[in-house]
Write a structure and sequence with these properties.
With 163 residues, the chain is α/β, with parallel strands linked by helices. The protein has six helices and five strands; from the N terminus they run E-H-E-H-E-H-E-H-E-H-H. The structure holds 4'-phosphopantetheine. The site of 4'-phosphopantetheine has 12 residues, from strand 1 and helix 4.
């Protein structure tokens, strides 16, 4: 079965990558849907977020990433996917994802599988990564070096000499 891992990935973190990697071990193929939540303001453009997801998943042979512009269930149908995989950290994530799962099951007849975040990444969020980075903090524990470099570029307009 083909699975879709959706998110806005602003930017992709080790938490996202852990869920994508585990989904790739469970399903025949995983398509990462890089979308936007109209209520959110983003640091990276859609193309940059997609590029970072592609670069950081290039070691996974059965994973690809595509832009998500419309409804997630239409994206799933277009890619022949029957299941959405969502990583969940807190009870609040589960509550929100339950609501989404019900909507997506009714509107698009697609199943949702929730994967509990691994202990290491159970409280990590892109929002926190952006917050730390915006004050010049080191985010290398939370994102691959390529992503950390792009954040530095974006936020501070500089890159470490050996980076
Ligand atoms: O990382 P995020 O911000 O939680 O990702 C949200 C995203 C992009 C996955 C979500 O907003 C989404 O699925 N958008 C597409 C529109 C849609 O199908 N919404 C769900 C039904 S209300």
């Amino acid at each position: 079965m083909i699975a879709v891992c959706p998110g806005s990935f602003d930017p992709v973190t080790y938490g996202h990558l852990d869920v994508i990697r585990r989904a790739a071990a469970l399903f025949e193929r995983v398509v990462v849907a890089v979308g936007q939540n109209s209520a959110k303001k983003y640091l990276f453009t859609p193309a940059e977020r997609l590029d970072l997801v592609r670069s950081t998943t290039s070691d996974l042979a059965n994973v690809s990433a595509e832009p998500l512009d419309g409804l997630l269930v239409d994206f799933a149908k277009a890619h022949g996917a029957g299941v959405l995989v969502k990583g969940v950290r807190f009870a609040s994530d589960v509550e929100f994802e339950l609501q989404m799962a019900h909507i997506n099951a009714v509107v698009g007849s697609v199943e949702t599988v929730m994967l509990p975040a691994s202990a290491d990444w159970s409280t990590l969020s892109s929002t926190m990564v952006r917050e730390v980075a915006s004050f010049g903090g080191d985010v290398s524990a939370f994102v691959p070096e390529l992503v950390a470099r792009q954040i530095r570029h974006k936020i501070q307009g500089w890159e470490q000499p050996n980076g």
